[in-house]
Amino acid sequence: MSGTLSALAPVFGLIVLGYLLKSRGGFTEAFWDPAERMTFYILFPALLVTKIGGAEAVGVGLLPMAAAMAAATLIVALFISFFRSGLQKSGIDGPGFTSIFQGAIRPNTFIGMAAAYALFGDLGLTLAAAAIIAVIPLVNILSLTALYRWAGAGPAEPKQRRGWGDAMVPAFKNPIILACLFGAALNMTGLGLPPVVGPMLKIIGSAALPLGLMAVGAGLDLGAARKVRGPIAGAAVLKLAVMPALTYAICRVFDVTGSALTVAVLFMALPVASASYVMARQLGGDGALMAGIITVTTIAAALTLPVTIFLVG
Fold first, then answer.
1. Which residue, 79, 129, 73, is CA-closest to 106?
2. What is the tens place of the pLDDT at every residue in 64-112?
């Protein structure tokens, strides 16, 4: 347990640092918004391409792990959808439901990559990349579909209903997904990293985890976390407890063991991605509720994530 805490302490320490830098006024939104976009579109993809493209092995051996994670995601998504009418009767409207939906299934990849690297080094990054390929397109498609179905479209197209086709295209334009696929192609074809571009990408990618984690902290909203406590708590329990427990059970059925099992469960026990807030705001979801869920799950994960890893390992 002490080893896990020691490995994860710097991860959450950088999140706290980002929050303090933002809250103390040293760095305003004018800094953090471009920093987050640069991390998402440039730094993080560069890190993934170099780590996957230069890894020793990426391939079909990770399919059981990926299948278990995808299965757990689908089961939780179906579970939440089944109880939508009950939530509606309790006062949760369509936009609010979509925020709970996102809050239960969308992991924060910045924290996931940093935690996997802290625990297992380059192998952890490779396993986390496999987790990203398995889960991130799926949760994006599911989240977009839920927003189109129950929250309407954005301000320019209120209440317009769209479906799976509209959700799949933006999901597979995600730069993180594209970087994982490109890195996997370099690895599987044996090409590896090119001689000049490869070292340059390694230098760029080295800034991804620290800046990304500080951006997570800068995005926390403690005011939003104090509102609508019931729905926030429910989403947090689903994300931080039910999802990893279900993933562990399915991994055991699929005979996933060792570091692959730990990273799979770790990835599914992550707090909610900050991008969920942007998606909620743009597509008619409940932005305030989404901000509260992100904040609560991020703070709570500082306690639940080490315990989860300890129980798995």
1. 73
2. 999 999 999 999 999 999 988 888 878 888 899 999 999 999 999 889 9
Backbone CA torsion sign across 151, 154, 160, 162: negative
Question: What residue type is assigned to position 140 of the chain?
Answer: N
* Amino acid letter, 146: A
Total count of domains within the chain: 1
DSSP-derived letter for residue 226 is: T
Question: Measuring CA to CA, which residue among 111, 126, 131, 115 is closest to residue 51?
Answer: 126
pLDDT in tens, 245-297: 999 999 999 999 999 999 999 999 999 988 888 778 777 888 889 889 999 99
48, two tokens:
């993934």
- Distance, CA of 269 to chain centre: 10
Q: On the CB side of 14, how many CA atoms lie within 13 Å of its CA?
A: 18
Q: Which of 109, 262, 264 is nearest to 177 (CA)?
A: 109
Residue 229 lies in domain? 2-312
Closest by alpha carbon to 39, among 175, 236, 224?
Answer: 175
CB burial of residue 56 (10 Å; 0-12, 13-18, 19+):
exposed
Domain CATH for 33: 1.20.1530.20
Helix, strand or coil, per DSSP, at residue 257 = coil
Three-state secondary structure call for residue 163:
coil
3-state secondary structure of 83: coil
Q: How far apart are CA 293 and CA 300, in angstroms?
A: 10
Is residue 27 classed exposed, middle or buried when 0-12, 13-18 and 19+ CB atoms within 10 A define those classes? middle
CA 303 – CA 93 distance, rounded (Å): 31
Q: Of 222, 237, 209, 227, which Cα lies nearest the Cα of 304?
A: 237
Q: What is the DSSP string of 114-130?
A: HHHHHHHTHHHHHHHHH
> 142 CB contacts (<8 Å, ≥6 apart)?
73, 77, 101, 105, 167
